[in-house]
Every structure is written in C-alpha cells, then in structure tokens.
Specification:
Layout lengths: L1 H30 L3 H10 L5 H26 L7 H18 L7 H27 L3 H24 L30 H18 L1 H11 L1 H6 L4 H27 L11 H12 L3 H24 L6 H14 L5 H14 L1
Length: about 350
C-alpha cells in the first residue's frame, strides 16, 4: 500500500504542475502578440547563458533553506508560516553583525550567519512553545510574528543603520570580510550553496536516521498515538520549531551576505511563504527539496526573461504557483486514481 500511495503522490504532483503549465501557456497564447517567443523564452531561456543558469541556482539557495524549514514543520503537522518574518529579520541581524563587528575574513560570515540562525530559532521556538504549552494556533501566531518582525526590522534599519544622504532605504555597507565569496566564475553563485547542500543532508539524516526524526514523524502522523507510545510531543514540537527557525534564520543571513553588499529589503521577501509550495512539491522530503527549489527558481528566471523580452509580465508565475498549490493541497484531486492504485496493490499482495 505504501508503494501505491508513493506512486499516487508522484503522479498527482506531476499532473498538478502539468495543468499549471498548460493554463499558463494558454493564457500566453491568448494574450501575447509574440506567443511562441514568449513560451520559448520561458521554457529554454534560462539555459541559453551561463549567467542565466547561475541565476537559477542563486535563486534556489534561499528557497532550499525555506523548503527545509517548512518541510520539518509539516512533518510534525505544524502549519507554521513564520519563516517569512524570520528570513527578513535574520537577514537584518546578519547585516548588522557584518556592519558593526570587526572579525577576520572567513570567521566574520560564520559568526553573522550563526547569529541570524540563533535569532530565527528563538523566534520560531516561541511559536512552538505556545503551541505545545497552550495549543495556540501556530498559523495565527506565526503570521502575527511576521508582521511584528517586519515592523521591528524596519524601525531598526531606518533609525540605526540606514545609509545617510540617500532616498533609498538601505543599510550602510556591509564589511567585505562578512560577505560570502563567489565559487563559480561568471555567476553570483556563492558558498552558501555548499551550506544549503549540507543542510539538506543533515535534515535527511535527522528525519530518517535519528530518534528525534522518528518522534517528529510519529507526532505528525498521529499525535495522540505518539503520546500513548511514550513520546513527549510537546517537547518534539518545541524542538522541531527551534530547528526549523534556525534553518530559516541562516537562510536569511546567507541570502543577504551572499547576494547584497548592504541590507536592501524594504518589504518581506516572500521566501518564507515559498517554502510551503516547495515542501508540498517535495512531499516534505529534504532530498526532494533541492529539485523543487530548482524547479521554482527555474520558472521564475524563465518568467523574468519572458517579461523582459516579450509582452507577458513575470506575474504569470504567480498564477502557476497558485494552481499548483490548489491541486496538490486538494484532498479529492485524483482520488479515483489513488483508490484504484491501492485496490490493485491489495489484490496483488
């Protein structure tokens, strides 16, 4: 039965993505004066230059951290959207450490990223504690924290670290010793990619090769059964929240130190919310998060090229993302196919 359900989830994901792409291409055909050129730029544009392929990987790096954080939370059946605010505020913390603290090159970015991760863990840990202690809705509380962190971050940026004599709200320059180095020539792919891949491996080991990972999965599968099995589910909720917050925090820090020379976010970056889509596509499996993040990054770079070279706006990707979430999250979508696969496996068992 497990094989049938795994096959069903894979088929459902591919069908959802396929329907979203078909709808997107149909809209392009109906609205564009250059439909074939627009579709070509969208589908193969990111492969035409090394710089564009680099853009895909650069875009995927923060998405990997976001997807990992949300995947861990979803494994424990925690619908927590707090990664969005943590990405913003932790990125600011990393920038502040990069601006205010003087450390040797090589040590400086490590300290800044660890500081951003610790802040992220503390914030997400608060949400997890309230959920575990008083069963407060983690969705409502995390969304409230997003607004709080955004407002607090803007205040700190504007009053203490804003660059003077400029109409653009951005921080003063981050010290070069704190910035991440580029690892692939002719691109902006930075050393944060290596950290992201290490994080993927670590999360996979955590979930499927450790006692805590088993407890996380059991709590998500059936919290009541987990309690009667002797698992301290309240402790598990706090622990997974701390880990997810740490991942989101270092993701924000790495994105700021790897892609910018100053903190320039004047709005929530949207990276935390993207984690939910990536987790859904990956079925909360850390290894699949990489592929899902690359897919989302690819269509975004393709959409950006399409908008710059034709008459179709990049917002087309938003329509596709919405359709993918709609179909993947719909419990009844392709339910008849699921039932048929399960019955076939039972009969042949």
């Amino acid at each position: 039965m497990k094989n049938a359900l795994r096959k069903f989830e894979m088929v459902r994901t591919f069908v959802a993505v396929g329907i979203a792409l078909i709808v997107g291409f149909t809209i392009i055909l109906l609205l564009s004066n250059q439909p074939l050129q627009a579709i070509t730029n969208f589908v193969v544009g990111p492969l035409t230059k090394v710089r564009y392929m680099g853009n895909v990987i650069e875009t995927a790096i923060p998405l990997i951290f976001s997807g990992l954080a949300v995947s861990l939370l979803f494994q424990a059946k925690l619908f927590n959207m707090g990664a969005e605010g943590i990405f913003y505020f932790s990125g600011l913390i990393a920038a502040i450490v990069g601006i205010s603290v003087t450390l040797p090159m090589g040590v400086h970015p490590i300290v800044a990223i660890l500081a951003s991760g610790i802040v992220g863990a503390l914030v997400m840990g608060i949400v997890g504690f309230f959920k575990a202690r008083w069963d407060v809705s983690e969705l409502v509380l995390s969304l409230m924290f997003n607004t709080i962190l955004y407002g607090l971050g803007l205040y700190i940026l504007n009053h203490f670290f804003r660059e003077a004599n400029t109409v653009v709200m951005k921080s003063v320059k981050i010290q070069k010793s704190a910035l991440l180095h580029t690892i692939i020539p002719k691109t902006n792919i930075h050393s944060g990619l290596l950290v992201a891949l290490i994080a993927v491996y670590a999360c996979h080991r955590l979930l499927y090769r450790s006692k805590l990972g088993y407890e996380i999965r059991m709590t998500g599968a059936n919290e009541i059964f987990a309690k009667y099995s002797g698992i301290n589910t309240a402790k598990v909720i706090v622990q997974v929240s701390l880990i997810a917050g740490f991942l989101a925090g270092i993701g924000g820090g790495i994105e700021v130190l790897g892609m910018y020379d100053a903190f320039k976010w004047v709005a929530l970056p949207g990276l935390g919310f993207d984690g939910a889509l990536i987790a859904m596509l990956a079925k909360n499996d850390p290894k699949r998060v990489v592929v899902s993040a690359l897919f989302l990054a690819y269509i975004r770079i393709g959409a950006d090229l399409m908008s710059r070279l034709t008459d179709i706006p990049a917002e087309m990707v938003g329509i596709m993302q919405g359709l993918i979430i709609l179909f993947i999250s719909g419990r009844k979508f392709l339910q008849f196919y699921r039932n048929r696969l399960v019955m076939k496996e039972v009969q042949t068992a």
